[in-house]
């Protein structure tokens, strides 16, 4: 079962085996391990290091192993140290001595670096698709809600009116950047470590370019010591995953607030909420809370790997085996959160009337009232103070700015006229905000068209 028994005279202590072994988790990339071995064997034959017949035997053997794992006839079991040992042992078991030639010019150090890169490349693809799906949902909500008014907040205090389209658009931008970050990682990491050996390359005449192109890399890595000990791309990935979770967590927080009895901006679908075992009236936003909660776990993975790497001398050290469980867990967590979040978002109902009513209370149009005066020649600082005093009058009388009679306006400044009401109506407050990126309908429609184009091309 061991690839390295030769210089040992004793059996490994069972606890040492358990502690050392990674097969319980690195079996996750059996497919990538086999694909890497097929490419390596193909290259060995092209270079005349093994014969064409030997290559065929090896490639067929590896293909069968992959099929058998996939159809459940071959079980990956714990007595092997790692997935690399498992596949190689099975190959030798199945095709005999020729199988022993597969590892020529290769070390598990470049092999594991390769497997992890191949695995991450595939997972980035899946993560990207999930992000895109979520963006498509946001895009649909945006198109349907360019005239759904709601309060915009700062300090969680009503600030200025926006629309639901505009609010969703903020998250559209965040997830767009998340996708760009993932894409950047893919570009930077896409160099093949195969051929780096244990740390110092190999004496066989390998064709590293050939292997790299067989496996879809942009080329081979340029320093064998770096190639076997580089985990930067995992740190970048965990950092990007942390940022995705931070975005999802902020969004979750808003959904939890919007779902509260006090706000009632949204109604979560029954299929995406849960109840209480004691309080019959409850309908809880557990999905949003769990997404918010799982954010800490993904941040933890990032800090954990950074800490693992910080003291490691070149080149490979076994510490690096610790990169796997936490990376796999972080990826699976983010994939789950993205899928669930999309389900929750695409099924929730927005209570447009409640949102709009909320936007028309709370003096959300006070800035616009000040701007009205500025347009009539009053300096902004004076206008600010005048409206401040009007707000006090409103609070006194229990009215909103829209409801305050013109006499009250005129009592504080003669500049006011009947057109104040039109100037501070919710519709004009929003639609006058027409700078690109603002919530006004026209500006919003330009952005929605750009988003449409983005989604078509990316
Ligand atoms: N399981 C190991 C890891 O995940 C594979 C590399 C083992 N290399 C070694 N020299 N022991 O890092």
| Residue-averaged pLDDT | 96
**What CATH architecture of the largest domain do you see?**
Up-down Bundle
Helix segment count?
19
Gap from first CA to last CA? 46 Å
Structural class: mainly alpha
Please state roughly what percent of the residues sit in beta strands, choosing from under 5%, 5-15%, 15-25%, 25-35%, 35-45% or over 45%.
under 5%
* Helix and strand pattern: HHHHHHEEHEHEHHEHHEHHHHHHH
Let me know the largest β-sheet: 2 strands, antiparallel
Textual characterization of the structure:
With 458 residues, the chain is mainly alpha-helical. It has 3 domains: 5-104, Fumarase/aspartase (N-terminal domain) (Fumarase C, Chain B, domain 1, Orthogonal Bundle), CATH 1.10.275; 109-146 and 157-357, Fumarase C, Chain A, domain 2 (Up-down Bundle), CATH 1.20.200; 359-457, Ribonucleotide Reductase Protein R1, domain 1 (Orthogonal Bundle), CATH 1.10.40. It contains 19 helices and 6 strands. The protein has helices at 14-20, 23-26, 30-46, 52-70, 83-95, 108-144, 164-189, 208-214, 224-229, 232-259, 286-309, 323-347, 352-360, 366-375, 380-397, 406-412, 420-423, 426-431, 441-457; strands at 149-154, 157-163, 191-192, 219-220, 266-267, 349-350. The strands form 3 sheets. A two-stranded antiparallel sheet has the order 1-2. The chain has a two-stranded parallel ribbon with strand order 3-4. The longest helix is centred in the first third of the chain and has 37 residues, at 108-144. The model has no long low-confidence stretch (mean pLDDT 96). It comes from Herbinix luporum. GO terms for molecular function: argininosuccinate lyase activity.
